[in-house]
Q: What sequence folds into this?
């Protein structure tokens, strides 16, 4: 599970697709090599496990493509794995992904929505300090620190809006309010 619906569904899709590809590949290997020797099977298992471990940090979707064959081949060291073992592994992962999606949808708090008021306040306070500074300097240059702060707050506001948009039921009124604040901020800067 991930903090937002969008992140959870993205990771879930990568895992399910990777599991399907990996178990299909492992099943094909086991069918083609009806009775591989234990040293060959062990070497191939270690190779798949090593590749899977390296790829997990690089791309979560590639990890199960190699981890699934490693697991199924590892089980084959003791008893011959079949397509039924691959089907069980795939179906268990699909059920797990569905449970993660349901938990994210109904149990996980929508943190993006709770961050918006604070970020909105930060943006408005930054704009107010900016206007105070401009008024006090009567057209003097804006300090670089204020510019960076204002840009960072606007970036956080845009990130919050993007995360809210990925929710299964994005709050339309809040989204419209964020757009209004963004537009007002742009007018103040112009």
A:
């Amino acid at each position: 599970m991930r903090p937002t619906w969008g992140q959870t569904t993205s990771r879930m899709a990568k895992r399910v697709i990777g599991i399907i590809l990996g178990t299909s590949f492992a099943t094909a290997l086991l069918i083609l090599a009806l009775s591989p020797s234990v040293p060959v099977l062990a070497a191939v298992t270690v190779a798949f496990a090593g590749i899977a471990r390296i790829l997990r940090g690089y791309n979560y979707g590639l990890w199960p493509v190699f981890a699934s064959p490693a697991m199924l081949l590892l089980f084959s060291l003791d008893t011959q794995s079949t397509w039924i073992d691959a089907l069980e592994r795939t179906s268990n992962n699909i059920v797990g992904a569905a449970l993660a999606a349901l938990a994210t949808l109904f149990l996980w708090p929508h943190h993006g929505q709770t961050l918006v008021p604070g970020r909105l306040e930060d943006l408005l306070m930054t704009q107010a300090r900016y206007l105070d500074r401009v008024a006090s300097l009567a057209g003097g240059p804006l300090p670089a620190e204020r510019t960076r702060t204002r840009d960072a707050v606007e970036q956080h506001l845009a990130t919050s809006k993007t995360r809210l948009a990925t929710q299964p039921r994005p709050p339309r009124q809040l989204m419209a309010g964020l757009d209004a604040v963004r537009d007002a901020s742009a007018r103040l800067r112009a």
